[in-house]
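Minutes, structural biology subgroup

Action item carried over from last meeting: produce the C-alpha coordinate record for Ig-like domain-containing protein (Stylophora pistillata). EB confirmed the sequence was re-checked against the source entry. Recorded below for completeness.
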Amino acid sequence: MSMKSMWTFTFVLGVIITEVYSRDIPNFDTTQLLTVEKGQYVEIRFNLWMRPDLLGAPCADEEYLEIRDGSDQSGNLLGVFCGRDVRDVTLRSSGRNMWLSFSPHRRYHIWDDYFEGKTLNATVATDLGNVAKNQFVLLNHSSSLWCPARGGPAPRIVWKRNGVVMQNSTSVRLQINVTEEERNTKYSCEVDDHGQLKRKNISLVVESKFQAPSLFQVELN
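Output recorded by EB:
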Protein backbone atom coordinates (compact mmCIF):
# COMPACT_ATOMS: atom_id res chain seq x y z
CA MET A 1 0.00 0.00 0.00
CA SER A 2 1.43 3.39 -0.98
CA MET A 3 1.85 6.20 1.53
CA LYS A 4 -0.89 8.17 -0.22
CA SER A 5 -3.40 5.32 -0.12
CA MET A 6 -2.51 4.56 3.51
CA TRP A 7 -3.30 8.13 4.55
CA THR A 8 -6.53 8.04 2.57
CA PHE A 9 -7.54 4.78 4.27
CA THR A 10 -6.89 6.20 7.75
CA PHE A 11 -8.77 9.40 6.95
CA VAL A 12 -11.82 7.54 5.69
CA LEU A 13 -11.98 5.40 8.83
CA GLY A 14 -11.74 8.50 11.01
CA VAL A 15 -14.63 10.13 9.16
CA ILE A 16 -16.79 7.02 9.49
CA ILE A 17 -16.38 6.84 13.26
CA THR A 18 -16.90 10.58 13.70
CA GLU A 19 -20.10 10.57 11.66
CA VAL A 20 -21.55 7.57 13.50
CA TYR A 21 -20.84 8.82 17.02
CA SER A 22 -21.43 12.54 16.54
CA ARG A 23 -24.95 12.38 15.19
CA ASP A 24 -27.82 12.56 17.61
CA ILE A 25 -30.41 9.80 17.92
CA PRO A 26 -33.88 10.88 19.20
CA ASN A 27 -33.66 8.75 22.34
CA PHE A 28 -29.84 9.20 22.63
CA ASP A 29 -29.42 5.48 22.17
CA THR A 30 -26.46 5.02 19.81
CA THR A 31 -24.85 1.75 18.80
CA GLN A 32 -22.29 0.84 16.19
CA LEU A 33 -20.79 -2.39 14.90
CA LEU A 34 -17.16 -2.24 13.78
CA THR A 35 -16.14 -5.06 11.43
CA VAL A 36 -12.79 -5.85 9.84
CA GLU A 37 -11.72 -8.56 7.42
CA LYS A 38 -11.75 -12.27 8.27
CA GLY A 39 -8.56 -13.38 9.97
CA GLN A 40 -8.23 -10.04 11.76
CA TYR A 41 -9.22 -8.54 15.10
CA VAL A 42 -10.36 -4.98 15.80
CA GLU A 43 -8.14 -2.42 17.48
CA ILE A 44 -9.76 0.85 18.46
CA ARG A 45 -8.32 3.97 20.06
CA PHE A 46 -10.37 6.88 21.33
CA ASN A 47 -10.90 9.67 23.83
CA LEU A 48 -14.23 10.23 25.59
CA TRP A 49 -15.36 13.71 26.53
CA MET A 50 -18.38 15.47 28.03
CA ARG A 51 -18.94 19.22 27.92
CA PRO A 52 -17.98 20.84 31.26
CA ASP A 53 -21.17 22.93 31.39
CA LEU A 54 -23.38 19.83 31.57
CA LEU A 55 -24.59 19.04 35.08
CA GLY A 56 -24.31 15.71 36.84
CA ALA A 57 -21.71 13.06 37.54
CA PRO A 58 -21.43 10.77 34.48
CA CYS A 59 -20.45 7.56 36.28
CA ALA A 60 -22.92 8.00 39.15
CA ASP A 61 -25.63 8.92 36.66
CA GLU A 62 -24.91 5.73 34.69
CA GLU A 63 -23.74 7.50 31.55
CA TYR A 64 -21.14 5.40 29.80
CA LEU A 65 -19.74 3.87 26.65
CA GLU A 66 -19.90 0.07 26.62
CA ILE A 67 -17.75 -2.04 24.30
CA ARG A 68 -18.35 -5.73 23.61
CA ASP A 69 -16.46 -8.51 21.90
CA GLY A 70 -18.74 -9.56 19.07
CA SER A 71 -21.44 -8.36 16.73
CA ASP A 72 -24.16 -7.35 19.20
CA GLN A 73 -25.12 -6.67 22.81
CA SER A 74 -24.73 -10.34 23.77
CA GLY A 75 -20.96 -10.29 23.22
CA ASN A 76 -18.50 -10.55 26.09
CA LEU A 77 -17.85 -7.25 27.86
CA LEU A 78 -14.50 -5.67 26.92
CA GLY A 79 -14.96 -2.45 28.87
CA VAL A 80 -17.26 0.21 30.29
CA PHE A 81 -16.02 3.80 30.21
CA CYS A 82 -17.38 6.87 31.96
CA GLY A 83 -16.10 10.22 33.21
CA ARG A 84 -15.90 13.74 31.86
CA ASP A 85 -12.50 13.31 30.21
CA VAL A 86 -11.31 9.77 29.44
CA ARG A 87 -8.12 9.76 27.40
CA ASP A 88 -6.02 7.44 25.28
CA VAL A 89 -8.09 4.25 25.48
CA THR A 90 -6.90 1.32 23.38
CA LEU A 91 -9.06 -1.78 23.18
CA ARG A 92 -8.95 -4.95 21.09
CA SER A 93 -11.44 -7.66 20.20
CA SER A 94 -10.80 -11.39 19.84
CA GLY A 95 -12.24 -11.54 16.32
CA ARG A 96 -13.44 -9.40 13.45
CA ASN A 97 -16.34 -7.68 15.26
CA MET A 98 -16.59 -5.11 18.04
CA TRP A 99 -19.87 -3.65 19.33
CA LEU A 100 -20.08 -0.13 20.78
CA SER A 101 -23.07 1.17 22.69
CA PHE A 102 -23.78 4.43 24.50
CA SER A 103 -26.07 4.54 27.53
CA PRO A 104 -29.54 5.98 26.81
CA HIS A 105 -28.70 9.47 28.12
CA ARG A 106 -25.72 9.68 25.72
CA ARG A 107 -24.08 13.08 26.24
CA TYR A 108 -20.59 11.95 25.34
CA HIS A 109 -18.41 12.82 22.38
CA ILE A 110 -15.74 10.52 20.98
CA TRP A 111 -12.74 12.32 19.50
CA ASP A 112 -9.26 11.67 18.14
CA ASP A 113 -10.34 8.12 17.35
CA TYR A 114 -9.79 5.38 14.81
CA PHE A 115 -10.10 1.64 14.38
CA GLU A 116 -8.27 -0.84 12.21
CA GLY A 117 -7.91 -4.55 11.55
CA LYS A 118 -4.90 -6.42 12.91
CA THR A 119 -3.95 -9.89 11.71
CA LEU A 120 -4.44 -12.55 14.38
CA ASN A 121 -0.72 -13.28 14.46
CA ALA A 122 0.05 -9.60 15.18
CA THR A 123 -0.14 -10.21 18.91
CA VAL A 124 0.15 -7.71 21.75
CA ALA A 125 1.41 -8.84 25.17
CA THR A 126 -1.30 -9.26 27.81
CA ASP A 127 -1.20 -6.82 30.71
CA LEU A 128 -3.00 -7.11 34.07
CA GLY A 129 -1.55 -3.88 35.44
CA ASN A 130 -4.93 -2.14 35.63
CA VAL A 131 -6.58 -4.85 37.73
CA ALA A 132 -7.37 -3.57 41.24
CA LYS A 133 -6.18 -5.86 44.04
CA ASN A 134 -8.98 -4.74 46.38
CA GLN A 135 -12.48 -4.44 44.93
CA PHE A 136 -15.66 -3.22 46.61
CA VAL A 137 -18.83 -5.33 46.63
CA LEU A 138 -22.21 -5.02 48.34
CA LEU A 139 -23.31 -7.62 50.86
CA ASN A 140 -26.24 -9.74 49.60
CA HIS A 141 -26.51 -7.72 46.39
CA SER A 142 -25.39 -8.30 42.83
CA SER A 143 -21.89 -6.85 42.41
CA SER A 144 -19.18 -6.90 39.78
CA LEU A 145 -15.51 -7.79 39.89
CA TRP A 146 -13.32 -6.32 37.16
CA CYS A 147 -10.27 -7.69 35.37
CA PRO A 148 -9.48 -5.19 32.59
CA ALA A 149 -6.87 -7.34 30.88
CA ARG A 150 -5.30 -5.71 27.85
CA GLY A 151 -3.78 -7.61 24.96
CA GLY A 152 -4.24 -8.47 21.34
CA PRO A 153 -6.26 -10.33 20.32
CA ALA A 154 -8.46 -9.88 23.41
CA PRO A 155 -7.30 -12.55 25.89
CA ARG A 156 -9.55 -15.16 27.47
CA ILE A 157 -9.93 -14.39 31.17
CA VAL A 158 -10.29 -17.31 33.58
CA TRP A 159 -12.11 -16.25 36.74
CA LYS A 160 -11.62 -18.45 39.81
CA ARG A 161 -13.34 -18.57 43.19
CA ASN A 162 -11.27 -20.33 45.86
CA GLY A 163 -9.32 -21.94 43.03
CA VAL A 164 -12.39 -23.23 41.16
CA VAL A 165 -13.09 -21.91 37.66
CA MET A 166 -16.24 -19.77 37.57
CA GLN A 167 -15.99 -18.20 34.11
CA ASN A 168 -13.75 -18.54 31.06
CA SER A 169 -14.31 -15.93 28.35
CA THR A 170 -13.06 -12.57 27.09
CA SER A 171 -15.35 -10.73 29.53
CA VAL A 172 -13.57 -8.37 31.92
CA ARG A 173 -16.45 -8.60 34.40
CA LEU A 174 -17.54 -11.33 36.80
CA GLN A 175 -20.92 -10.81 38.45
CA ILE A 176 -21.25 -12.19 41.97
CA ASN A 177 -23.54 -12.06 45.00
CA VAL A 178 -21.63 -12.16 48.28
CA THR A 179 -23.27 -13.50 51.44
CA GLU A 180 -22.05 -13.05 55.01
CA GLU A 181 -20.37 -16.47 54.89
CA GLU A 182 -18.43 -15.51 51.75
CA ARG A 183 -16.73 -12.37 53.03
CA ASN A 184 -13.29 -14.00 52.93
CA THR A 185 -13.74 -15.76 49.59
CA LYS A 186 -10.66 -15.57 47.38
CA TYR A 187 -11.08 -14.57 43.75
CA SER A 188 -8.56 -14.35 40.94
CA CYS A 189 -8.39 -13.70 37.22
CA GLU A 190 -5.87 -15.42 34.98
CA VAL A 191 -4.79 -15.01 31.37
CA ASP A 192 -2.54 -16.96 29.05
CA ASP A 193 -0.07 -14.41 27.70
CA HIS A 194 0.93 -16.37 24.61
CA GLY A 195 2.21 -19.32 26.65
CA GLN A 196 2.92 -17.55 29.95
CA LEU A 197 0.33 -17.68 32.74
CA LYS A 198 -0.43 -14.37 34.44
CA ARG A 199 -2.64 -14.11 37.52
CA LYS A 200 -4.06 -11.32 39.67
CA ASN A 201 -5.54 -12.17 43.08
CA ILE A 202 -8.51 -10.06 44.16
CA SER A 203 -9.57 -9.37 47.74
CA LEU A 204 -13.15 -8.36 48.51
CA VAL A 205 -14.01 -5.22 50.44
CA VAL A 206 -17.56 -6.01 51.53
CA GLU A 207 -19.92 -3.17 52.34
CA SER A 208 -23.54 -3.18 53.47
CA LYS A 209 -26.04 -1.29 51.36
CA PHE A 210 -27.11 1.99 52.97
CA GLN A 211 -30.45 1.67 54.68
CA ALA A 212 -32.52 4.85 54.66
CA PRO A 213 -34.19 5.60 58.02
CA SER A 214 -37.88 4.85 58.27
CA LEU A 215 -40.43 7.63 58.61
CA PHE A 216 -40.87 6.65 62.26
CA GLN A 217 -37.14 7.05 62.93
CA VAL A 218 -37.04 10.41 61.17
CA GLU A 219 -39.91 11.74 63.27
CA LEU A 220 -38.19 10.61 66.49
CA ASN A 221 -35.09 12.57 65.53
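Discussion: The two ends are 75 Å apart (CA to CA).
Next step: EB to file the record with the rest of the batch.
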